[in-house]
Amino acid sequence: MQRAEHQLEPKIREIIDRVEHRYPGDAGLLAAIDLVAGTLDELPREFAFDADPDLRLATLEANRVSKNEALLLVAQNLHGWLGFAVYATVFKTSELVDDVISGLNDARPLRVVTAARSLMEHAAVLNSFYRDVAQSLDLLGSSAFRDVVRGLVEGYGIALRFAQSTRFNWAAGIAGDLDRFYDHSGSVDGGSKATNVLTLIDKLPQTVKGGTAFFYGMLCDFVHPNGASHMLTARIVMPLPGGRMRYELARPNNSDEAYEMVVHVIAIPVRESLLLLTGQLLDLEHRRRILSETIGMIRSAAPPTGPIP
Questions:
Q1: Which of 199, 298, 302, 307 has its CA 20 to 30 A from that of 99?
Q2: Is the pLDDT score of 4 beyond 70?
Q3: Structure pTM?
């Protein structure tokens, strides 16, 4: 991952440290941010690959592609789409971490909570993809050739769906069918329709009290124009004589109380999301390297005879 463009200012690190000591359950936010800025820093800033448009069995057989050539094409495209999933997530995670850091430094709390919620969503989507594709990639270590083939084919399909999943009818727009694009924007082919993110949030590891749905719902209340969101602008909220209350709003809202509230709100979901993203992304990149070895073995193998399995 590219190094974060912004670094937490000493004042912000002190505030986070203070919050982590006050709320022991929040501990680890600073370490998680530093982990992302360090561990993933070695990954490339760019990624590219050439995808084959049609790897359906009928197409391959019509083009007289041999079994070995077909297997090589599937493996190469799996390798490419797996890299697409990794680096699309890496680059977006890097931007979101920068938004958290710069939002804290510049007293822009809405930027911070919005990025925090998006980090949870990216962690949920990657986690679902990781669990599915890892099962397929595990088959590549099998001694049974049929299992290896199944792992490559299933893994390719999973990686391709990750890249193409959507809840918007982009296909109609690209085809120029504007009536269908505007009137049926949610009509998406079942194979490429993205799963509702709330479903995936519930499937994240439940490592903290309240569960992931609780923290996601809390962040949503700060992102949506609701009461919690309005309070992000409150520099001072204090009681007055006679039961009255005083509210002072400010932009930027750089009071220590506001900082501490925002840090407390994001600490657990950001920490857990970054740890999960970092671990799974690095493991997927490791699996890509193993897949490269599989591709090398397929390429060097003598072309087998018989129909494509």
A1: 199
A2: no
A3: 0.90
